[in-house]
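User: Some background: our group keeps a shared notebook of sequences we're curious about, and every so often someone picks one and asks for a predicted structure to add to the entry. Today it's my turn. The entry only has the sequence so far, pasted here. Could you supply the structure so I can complete it?
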Amino acid sequence: MTSDTRIDDIYTRLNDLTHDVTNLKIQAGTIGTSPVAIATNLTLTTGLASDMREVKSDIRQMKSDIRNIDASINEILRLLRSQNNQS
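Assistant: Of course. Here's the predicted structure to add to the notebook entry:
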């Protein structure tokens, strides 16, 4: 084997190793970040679910308030009509 052939062989193997290391880094990064990404998503989802429960509770309270206001207005109108009928 000539010197040039040996150098070419070394460069080829270095390129192969570089490629393998890069692939391993990508795999390790993906495996390493997946649990972090999942944990982050779960934290965000839990927070959003909590916010959504609060919003739903607020909406239920608003609907209840509107029904009460509506009932009060109807009672006021009934009283005004009955007063007008007596006049």
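Suggested note for the entry: The chain is about 95% helix and 0% strand. The mean pLDDT is 84.
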